[in-house]
Amino acid sequence: MIQVLSSAWALLLGMCLLMVGNGMQGTLLGIRGAIEGFSTFEMSIVMSAYFVGFLGGSRLAPHMIRRVGHVRVFAALASLISAVMILYPTFPAVPLWAIGRVLIGFCFSAVYVTAESWLNNAADNSNRGQALSLYMIVQTLGIVVAQALLLAADPSGYVLFVIPSVLVSVAVTPILLTISPTPAFDTTKPMSLRELARFSPLGCIGMFLLGGVFSAQFGMAPVYGAEAGLSVAQISTFVATFFVGSVVLQYPIGWVSDRMDRRTLIVITSAIGAAGSVMGMMLGDVFWLLLISAFIVGGMSNPLYSLLIAHTNDFLEHEDMAAASGGMIFINGLGAILGPIITGWMMGTSLGPGGFYLFTAVLFVILAVYATYRATRRPAVPVDETGNYVALYPTATAVAVEYAQEYAIESEQDDENNS
């Protein structure tokens, strides 16, 4: 752990500050949109635009890095993020906000690709798992801290937009001044979606559904809070609780997944997520129960992402895992684009704010039912032949997923050697 911190502290600090900026702008726009009088559906378009940009960035970032290098890509896109954050309150219009969100999503995706390749270069076989865990913890910590900073000023003013802009600008400094080696960059050509679906139908369907769940909680949770009449402090606590749940429950679920049929665990976690969603829909007017529901939904959805990747890897050869990662992320991105739009439409009907939780409940139920069906179609992989579970969050790019799969393969080989 100390070795990882000494070699990558600047990168981890910079990523934490970047995530604070990203977490603030996402929640703040949901609150500010209500102040500006934007409808729920209009805000759903704005929130969905982020995932359009993110998916595009994940496809184009590797080409940009190969052409001009890590340093230029990282610095240029971080500067663009900082500029867009300042422009939001200056031009409060839905089309301009949507364009800004596309740019922000594109830039953050490319920044993640750059940072994750740097992190991979800074780690070795002995500390790869620790480095990946620290990276994921730092990302979540940044988002949680961001919610607390929303209480620093009035969301109807400019200050809360200035803070994330400054943090993003500052985040670049330690990274660019401290990290000198520029790693060689290469990514594996993605596996075709048809071939990926043949290997793991559950993995593909599950990733699509989970993209909708994650984008709803990441993009529409603050819009839900504003529609439900929550205060700024309550909205920030509500949004943070999703990510606290993901941190607390990620590793217990991962431990269990290495010791039982993963399809059964997918059914169980999806059912619990659906129950948490129903709880939020039926009892959301009691704030502490609303927080419990957010903890459950976040605590189930984020580990499910890693669980579906691990399940898919159980049916792949080692040399195919890296190629499959790009396809899995692309499918998840498609679901993420649709998630806020459908959620916003449901919240705009007679369902009101309850449409937010009804949407996640339906997706969890579909995943649980489909996983149950798939369990009848082919036998389970013996537990002693499954690969290791590695914690990942839906914000991870193909670089991090390939990085995690490399670590899982190494861990599996180490376990075999020890046996």
From TrEMBL:
Residues 2-378 form the Major facilitator superfamily (MFS) profile domain. Pfam families: MFS_1. Keywords: Membrane, Transmembrane, Transmembrane helix. The keyword Transmembrane helix applies. The keyword Transmembrane applies. The chain crosses the membrane at residues 40-61, 73-91, 97-119, 131-152, 158-179, 199-220, 232-253, 265-283, 289-310, 322-342, 354-373. It comes from the Bacteria. This is MFS transporter.
